[in-house]
Design a protein that fits this description.
Distance between the termini: 20 Å
Strand content: under 5%
Number of strands: 0
Order of helices and strands: HHHHHHHHHHHHHH
Radius of gyration: 21 Å
Shape: globular
Number of helices: 14
Largest sheet: none
Length: 370
């Protein structure tokens, strides 16, 4: 499909297509078909991902084991199979789905808020800010009174601080543009990565270097059931908010002035979105590390399927993001087995060429610019 060649959205009364960037106008597939199909693919992907590994577990056994754990009934599977499913693979696969969905949702909203198709938490330095906050909690002992939630709170505070910093730098002189935003994000990302390294190298905690490396490259290897609760709650709450804000996000795509004429309180909406996106990013980074390119690639895949209306893009991107990261994680633990690759390595190998393709085809630019 080619950007800028599609019909206008069905909600033209609220979201006229004329003011939208070219990258936000594409042809669509019916949402009534896409969402159920993706939900089925996600369920099948989760099931298959749990079966794949050095010890094969039949597909039908996976959910029987999970159900038996709830009901307490015995089955014809071995103790080893039950432990592999319940203690190792199922929490890891589910966490991959939650993190992939969360990062995709952040990418969708962030690209609308800043009207830049190249925006994602990694490129704009938000993930690096969250990493600084998380590493500071472990290395310097900050927020230790919060116990297990200290890392998540630290990551959230780091993410929101990075978000504010990037916008202040990009808006210096009141001339913020997509290019200035990307450059500011990359500059802040490198600076924050350097700060993370400084904390690690000057800390007396020897385990901090290993933990910090996992964050910088992204890893789901240590997933536990206890890691799922908070990310899942934040994802559900964030998704509900973004779904109810979909019309306002549509309006933001057409520019602040147009959004204001449609009744959107642009400044208030943007402040709330900054907090929501920082919270989502911080929590996801706290449990998985700074996994790059998911928030960049997945929103464009969703728009190619269902167009640019955020009432359709948000749920589709969440499902595609979940499916994507489930299979990326399978590749991370199986391609070079028994050696396990960081998830961020594979997302970078996939997302980097996609980024280059977008630049080469100028899909990130508004129509008519050079």
């Amino acid at each position: 499909m080619t950007a800028g060649t599609a019909a206008a959205p069905t909600t033209a009364a609220q979201t006229p297509a004329a003011g939208r960037p070219a990258w936000a106008r594409v042809q669509t597939v019916p949402i009534s078909f896409v969402v159920p199909a993706l939900a089925a693919v996600l369920f099948l992907s989760i099931t298959l991902a749990v079966t794949i590994g050095p010890v094969q577990v039949p597909m039908t056994t996976v959910w029987r084991i999970a159900l038996a754990r709830i009901t307490g009934e015995a089955g014809d599977w071995s103790t080893a199979e039950a432990n592999i499913v319940m203690m190792l693979r199922l929490p890891r696969v589910l966490l991959a789905a939650v993190v992939g969905a969360g990062l995709a949702a952040v990418g969708v909203a962030m690209q609308a808020v800043v009207r830049n198709p190249l925006a994602d938490p990694y490129i704009l330095g938000i993930s690096s800010g969250a990493s600084v906050g998380a590493v500071a909690v472990l290395g310097l002992g900050w927020l230790s009174a919060l116990g297990l939630y200290g890392v998540s709170v630290g990551a959230f505070l780091g993410a929101i601080a990075a978000f504010v910093l990037v916008f202040l730098v990009a808006n210096a002189g009141g001339q913020m543009s997509p290019l200035r935003l990307i450059l500011a994000g990359m500059a802040c990302s490198y600076t924050l990565a350097g700060l993370t390294s400084l904390i690690v190298l000057t800390s007396d905690n020897r385990e901090l270097a290993r933990a910090a490396m996992e964050w910088l490259l992204g890893s789901l290897g240590g997933a536990r059931w206890a890691d799922l609760g908070l990310p899942a709650i934040v994802l559900i709450a964030g998704t509900i908010y973004l779904r109810f804000s979909a019309r306002s996000l549509n309006a933001l795509l057409m520019g602040d002035e147009t959004a204001a004429t449609l009744g959107v309180d642009v400044h208030s909406l943007r402040r709330v979105l900054f907090v929501v996106l920082s919270l989502l990013t911080g929590i996801m980074v706290a449990v998985s590390g700074a996994i790059g390119f998911v928030g960049l690639v997945i929103p464009h895949m969703a728009r190619m399927l269902v167009g640019s209306d955020h009432r359709r893009v948000v749920p589709v991107a969440i499902l595609v993001g979940a499916i994507f990261l489930v299979w990326v994680d399978v590749g991370a633990r199986m391609v070079f087995a028994p050696v396990e690759l960081p998830v961020g390595v594979i997302t970078a190998l996939l997302g980097g060429p996609f980024f280059i393709w977008m630049l080469a085809t100028r899909r990130w630019q508004p129509k008519g610019t050079s």
